[in-house]
Request: fold
Amino acid sequence: DIENFYILEFEFSKGEQKSLEAFKSKLDKLIQKNAFDVLIDIDGDGLVQILSRKDSKGKTSDYLIITEDEDDAVFIWAGSK
Reply:
């Protein structure tokens, strides 16, 4: 039932590090409020996380994929309205 799909990319070579930190701060607050469940969390040479969120009926309504390495960070969100 995916209705929306968004990709947000920050490239460090373009000086987008400050914007990334502001975005991550807001996203971390949402995740800390237990709005998302962490499905996969891999931290090595880079970061890969897959998170999901359920609606009020208990059905998964949103997925968030986060990747980050030394060159860039990408956030992919797919979900319903």
